[in-house]
């Protein structure tokens, strides 16, 4: 039964990828392009989250 579930999950994953492929292509062609400063705007919140997680880990020890 476990093998059947793995095969079914793989089949569903392939069907989902097949279904979403046209939308992915359209998003890639017509999506917004990155501007100068976008990476800096994304890295600031990510850095804050990393520091917060480190603070939580240090508080538990």
Total strands = 0
User: Which stretches of 5+ consecutive residues score pLDDT under 50?
Assistant: none
Task: Estimate the global geometry from the Cα principal axes.
Answer: flat
Query: Strand share of the residues?
Result: under 5%
Structural class comes to mainly alpha
Order of helices and strands: HH
What do you see in this structure?
The chain has 61 residues and is an all-alpha fold. The protein has a domain at 1-30. Helices cover 85% and strands 0% of the residues. The protein has 2 helices and no strands. The chain has helices at residues 2-30, 38-60. The longest helix has 29 residues, at 2-30. The radius of gyration is 20 Å and the shape is flat. The model has no long low-confidence stretch (mean pLDDT 94).
What is this entry, summarized?
The chain is mostly helical and 61 residues long.
Outline the fold blueprint.
Blueprint: H1 2-30, H2 38-60
Top keywords for this entry?
2 helices, mainly alpha, 61 residues
């Amino acid at each position: 039964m476990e093998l059947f579930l793995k095969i079914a999950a793989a089949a569903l994953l392939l069907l989902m990828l097949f279904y979403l492929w046209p939308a992915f292509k359209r998003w890639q062609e017509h999506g917004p392009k990155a501007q100068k400063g976008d990476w800096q705007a994304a890295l600031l919140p990510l850095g804050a989250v990393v520091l917060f997680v480190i603070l939580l880990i240090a508080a538990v020890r």
